[in-house]
Amino acid sequence: MPGDSKYIDEHTAGLPGKEVRTVDDSQIIDLFFARSELAISELDAKYGKVCHKLAHNILDSRQDAEECVNDAYLGTWNAIPPQRPDPLLPFVCVLVRRYSIMRYRANTAMKRNSSYDACMEEIENCIAAPGRVEDHYEAKVLARTIERFLDTLNRENRVIFMRRYWYSDSYAAIAALTGLTEKNVSVRLARVRKQLRDYLMKQGVLT
Length: 207
Hints:
Elements: H1 5-10, H2 25-33, H3 38-59, H4 62-79, H5 88-107, H6 114-127, H7 133-136, H8 139-150, H9 155-165, H10 171-178, H11 182-202
């Protein structure tokens, strides 16, 4: 899935439960550069709810989500310095999602997560035969093609797409965020998936 900051940051704006803090990202990053213990506490205070919701959507386990968010915070600590991500939230969200998916894959032998599985099955059925994305196209090239497709959508449809397939939100959560009905969300996603598949075929990604 696309990981460009312009998409991730756009779709966290206005989320229910997202805390508004007066500490700027640049100030938090300065704390990381100073190796201050306040860096992670300020990061968590500003973006913790978004990070925990993302991890929990994938894992459906508060304990696993907590551990993955902590791993992402440690990854942020190790990356800053020398990196100075701008904006900060997409950088952290990418780490949270990466660690959460790694944990999810480790857990799948024991149980399956209906929310995450449903999202992945929808998008896999759209872009390729299930489990064969890598066989059809190099993953990074596919991601860039999907990002170009997202540029063709209006903002609301981009929000719906990203909330479903990047954040693994339920139809109910997306409906609450956008003010649409769950049925309308479902119909829009079906239409966007068809548009995406047609776009990928025109680009030569699918045959």
